[in-house]
Amino acid sequence: MDEAITDILKHNQLSVTDNRLKILELFHNNNKALSHADIEHLSGKNFDRVTIYRTLQTFVEKGIIHTIPTADNSIVYALCKEDCGEGHHHDDHVHFICDKCGTTYCLEQTSIPSINIPKGFSAHRVNVLVNGVCKNCRPS
Amino acid sequence: MDEAITDILKHNQLSVTDNRLKILELFHNNNKALSHADIEHLSGKNFDRVTIYRTLQTFVEKGIIHTIPTADNSIVYALCKEDCGEGHHHDDHVHFICDKCGTTYCLEQTSIPSINIPKGFSAHRVNVLVNGVCKNCRPS
DNA sequence: ACTTGTTTGCAACATCGTTGCAAAATTATT
DNA sequence: AATAATTTTGCAACGATGTTGCAAACAAGT
């Protein structure tokens, strides 16, 4: 399990460090999107703020994680699927943000519908954000 | 023209001040979404940063403008349509962000498609962000 | 084990956004 | 038209967030 995470780093020509292993582990253990602050808390405050910023930046560049825009304007990050690589992101799935618990999910199975945009505009990438209540916060 | 803007403020039970008139004017003159920084520059730096923050906040609460989430994580604001009011936003249109000039447009005429989300989740609001090249930046 | 190159942590800084409070402007009242 | 009551503004200070330079610590290759 730890070796799988190590492999991800090696495949992306990244040095294997405690910091990177720990952060990748957090993404694998929590099946949801994490903010910089989440990581700072979850990691037990062992790592410097700056290091976390730089690690996340590196992971985004390498295509290991992707960023998700949110309405309340905090950056959150989530693991990419297999087919993302350096400079090639293919995160064409819907993102769901729970208004109760604040959790952001990647709905991998929900594909993005096609959008008809006006003449003169050309679309390169579509982001769909759905706000609502997630299955854990659903009233019984 | 200036009176129309004054009316908007009065209809929302807001005092008519230079600041608010100027900011509303900027939104009417520039047919695109504006960031806090945009307003600071466009207004000629006559108003305090804090005042701009508070004015934008007030306008959002009153339903005069709405916020748009962006991938690069800067808040942008745009005018609401007629039917938005205090606590009632109905901005179900697509937002388009030009990757070249950075302009954010509200595509009022493009409606949001329905999204099938997994069981257990309930959707309340859908945000669609399209990135691409706008009609002004289109290569000839 | 040693060397090379990368990564980390610290310090300092820049930007962004918020809050409390007194002065100024706007609205309501007489 | 003048005054009183309320709202808004600007300033100062603060907190949170994100960035950069540089020396020490670490990982990878020989």
Could you explain the architecture of this structure?
The structure is a homodimer of 140-residue chains. The first copy, chain A, is an alpha+beta fold and 140 residues long. Chain A has a single domain (2-132), classed as Winged helix-like DNA-binding domain superfamily/Winged helix DNA-binding domain (Arc Repressor Mutant, subunit A), CATH 1.10.10.10. Chain A is built from four helices and six strands. The first copy, chain A, has helices spanning 2-11, 18-29, 36-42, 49-62; strands spanning 34-35, 65-68, 76-79, 93-98, 104-111, 122-133. In chain A, the strands form two sheets. In chain A, strands 1-3-2 form a three-stranded antiparallel beta sheet. Chain A has a three-stranded mixed beta sheet with strand order 5-4-6, with no helix packed on it. In chain A, strand 4 (93-98) and strand 5 form a beta hairpin. The longest helix of chain A has 14 residues, at 49-62. The first copy, chain A, is globular. The termini of chain A are far apart. The mean pLDDT of chain A is 89. The structure holds a DNA duplex (30 and 30 nucleotides).
